[in-house]
Amino acid sequence: MTRLNPLKPSERMKLLRQLPLEQDPVERAHNFDEVSQGFDIERTTVEAARCLECKEPLCTAGCPVGVDIRAFIQLVLQKDYVGAVNKIREANYLPAICGRVCPQETQCEEVCVLGKKLTPVAIGKLERFVADFEMKHNLFAVPAIAGRRAERVAVVGSGPAGLTCAAELAKMGYGVSIFEALHAVGGVLRYGIPEFRLPKEILDVETERIKALGVEITTNFVVGRTATVDEMLGEWGFSAVFLATGAGTPTFMGIPGESLSGVYSANEFLTRVNLMGAYRFPEYDTPVRLGKRVAVIGGGNTAMDAVRTSRRIGAEKACLVYRRSRQEMPAREEEIHHAEEEGIEFLLLTAPTRILGDAGNCVTGMECQRMTLGEPDESGRRRAVAVEGSEFILEVETVIEAIGQKPNPIVQATTPGLGTGKRGVVSVDERQATSRPGVFAGGDLARGGATVILAMRDGKRAAAEIADWLQSR
């Protein structure tokens, strides 16, 4: 293997991991501009030089979609940023998105050899830099497509799984049509992730690049209502269908008071802010009315997005209520750190027991109970155990529940013979194939809730399996 880095491994290990440019916490807590500004060229050059160029790169094995990380970093060392982003795009067609929201710290960076004794290479920030460089300088070129095939594939849902599957199939020459129920493309990337983490402009550019492959996108189209899966495979003339409708139906704790005015699911709250433009009020006349004191229940990335968003749209006090300790929180460490910087209060080892209201059925407070940690549960995290007699009242006017979601049942209910599992997820095998021939599924619809990159892996795998299935016919 040719090494492009002139520094000896011992010299590379002396270089410090570079930190991204970021907005000041006090300022950003009141705006929706992107928090992280990423790397500049100087930081990118130093960070790329830290890579040990391992003979057997564990980072690629740790990447759910198999990006050749060593190769793209070597191109960064040569300052061939367009070559680097194209190398990434061979495995991941949404680099500007993944460079922002992918949890690299628990995947490729977690297994980086450099991280065993020091800090791992900032792979995600390098990915973002090359994607943004290409975008800023308008250097994108549509990948060559060898030849067009006669078969057409319908992709239901335009979230990360659907977009990835569509892009991969289009690169193989298949005719692809995406059908999206909402009026805008992106699925959870648009309605679930706030502007300060993933600007809509970035999502729009990535979407246009998928359309440039020849993919057709139809919005305001509810599969199961506008047309069924069987109709798509029949009179509509599609040879296969990939279901990727996500998991947009919220779940609730089931505690008293959840019907009071002032209680939201995180799905509704974030959708109204992100998709309906509430973050741009009064430019968009779609405000979300919050009290001065807001409590968000949960400890995942959705909870972080909700509590940080509530701070930005006017909450004077925004707190996160989580039943375990910080160590067990599933949210990204970067998001937790940013929330703390922005003045979010963390009430850890705390669980709500009921929501209180006034005579007008408006929220006035939430009764909580202190918790302690017991033995690990099925998730591997220590079980939260209530401390008897530890109840107290938290004075709030708004409660947002971010404790999970499940798939919308429309597709399942209108597709005879489609196998489903717990909480309504669509059952798939290792090929992403469902119980219906020619129908594949992935992302949160088949998982019940996971990361963007895992949804993309499902979409990529499904595209390969759909192509194999069509060719075998």
Folded structure, characterized:
Helix 6 crosses helix 8 (123-136). The protein has helices at 9-12, 25-28, 41-49, 58-62, 69-77, 81-89, 95-101, 123-136, 160-171, 188-191, 200-211, 229-233, 266-274, 301-312, 333-341, 410-413, 444-447, 452-472, and strands spanning 21-22, 36-38, 152-156, 175-179, 216-218, 240-243, 249-250, 263-265, 293-297, 317-321, 345-347, 350-357, 363-376, 382-386, 392-394, 398-401, 405-406, 439-441. It is an alpha/beta fold and 473 residues long. It folds into three domains: 9-136, Fumarate Reductase Iron-sulfur Protein, Chain B, domain 2 (Orthogonal Bundle), CATH 1.10.1060; 152-248 and 406-472, FAD/NAD(P)-binding domain (3-Layer(bba) Sandwich); 252-403, FAD/NAD(P)-binding domain. The protein has a five-stranded parallel beta sheet. The protein has a five-stranded parallel beta sheet with strand order 8-16-9-10-11. Strands 12, 13, 14 and 15 form a four-stranded antiparallel beta sheet that branches. Helix content is 32%, strand content 17%. The longest helix is centred in the C-terminal third of the chain and has 21 residues, at 452-472.
Write down the overall geometry.
globular
Please tell me how large the radius of gyration is: 23 Å
| Structure summary, number of beta strands | 18
CATH architecture identity of the largest domain: 3-Layer(bba) Sandwich
What CATH calls the topology of the largest domain is FAD/NAD(P)-binding domain
Helix content: 25-40%
Main beta-sheet annotation: 5 strands, parallel
Number of helices: 18
Mean pLDDT value? 95
The CATH homologous superfamily of the largest domain: FAD/NAD(P)-binding domain
- Overall domain count: 3
Strand content: 15-25%
Low-confidence spans? none
